[in-house]
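Next comes a concrete protein, fold included:
___
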Amino acid sequence: METIQAALQQFSTLGVLVALIIGACWGTVAGVLPGMGTVAALIIALPFTFGLSTESSMALFLAIYVTSVYGGSISAILINTPGTPQSAATVLDGYPMAQAGKADLAIGWATVSSFIGGIFSLIILIAAAPALAKVSVAFGPAAIFAIVLFALTCIAWLSEGSMVKGMLGGMIGLWLTTIGQDNLTGMTRFSFGSDILRGGLTLIPILIGLFALSEVLYRAAKPEARTSSGDMNVGFRLPPLADMMARWREFLRACSIGTFIGILPGTGAMAATFVTYTAAKRYSPNRENLGKGEPDGLIASETSNNAVTGGALIPTLALGIPGDGGTLVLLGVMTIQGVVPGFDLINNNPQVLTGAFMMVLVANVIMFGTGMVSGRLFERVLRVPEPLLMGLILLFSLVGAFVVRGNPVDLIVCVIAGVVGLILRLTRYPIAPIVIGVALGFIFEEKLRQGLIASRGSIWGFVNDPIALPIFALTAAIIVLPLVSNRRSTASRKGHVA
């Protein structure tokens, strides 16, 4: 009780509240803008912390970190372009809902799901931060590699009806991450003698090109595919309480997976999102409708990626080990302000840790409010004539692709990815598997190498890992089940014909 009172006294100031509101608004806007992302939003705000108190700096950055992931869902729903990589799976059901005239309901589902995911992970963060942080350390490279490999098998489920195309797309995505300089040996791979490719490829330009730029090109090539904002019914509408209560299992599953994967350092929200979406494809009562505008898909994506934020704060605050790129920046800001996360924070400054919990809670509440307002705001934005709106999307997409590294090569990559995305759309090849491969390819290779180095080049080091082994078994089951199911359905059809 004394710790709570000390935290309230230290953090219940006007400056902290203003920092939370500004951080939440900026985080949402940054999430909406394609290519900006959580890390870029935090870095842009970094110079402002030097004139702020420790409490206000923490409030600003925690609010940006919590809300930026949510912001990506709005652009994913309205313009078929995930504002952040964590919202890539939101496109699969969010945009079809908007095309069906339910954009306001889709934004409502995304907002509610994000809020529930954030609050659930916060409760876990408060209840078990020190204990869970110790558990996360037990997950070595082999275990994390197994989880990433499992996430990659989501391709088999996300590409139902065209599993071969999906697996091929995932392999292409993995290959794209090997282009450029090898971080371990310094050697250049797959540059084809071009100096342009020596720096390698990054996720954001490919993501923006495949989704945003290809959408602009597709609408230009297919005028009949255009959808007006009036047809979308843009705004904000809360889902009926009965519908939310009926989907409590979907919320609980997404919260649990997102928080658990968020706790593991270096895994990231992308893996959590697609693992959760795969689980929904397997266990949701409405799994037949996933990918066609089903709220369960939004719940799986938005609940899990926001649950990751609280989960990633567990090793960050309790052990001083950043859970992802956003918490890495947050860790740096706290260190600059004289707050050193880890066991010292828990034992000697518990009021600071409690204050962080309180600020995350308030940030989630503000996020819910900004979600309600942003839906109305985008209703006005989308009233802009489509040629002008597509031009603005094109401009923001190219700027977003460039600002990540400030490298003109990324603009070229973005344009090429946009043309490739258009071809894939016209030939009805799935785009999501390529994005999954690129998003997880870097950590896939990193953990594979770390595991091989730890086991001195022996693959048995992965199999003998007590945590990795059951995950590998589950991965094998995920791959085999669709094949067995297809064979049985084929045999059944032949039997009926006979």
User: Anything to note?
Assistant: The first strand starts at residue 180 and ends at 181.
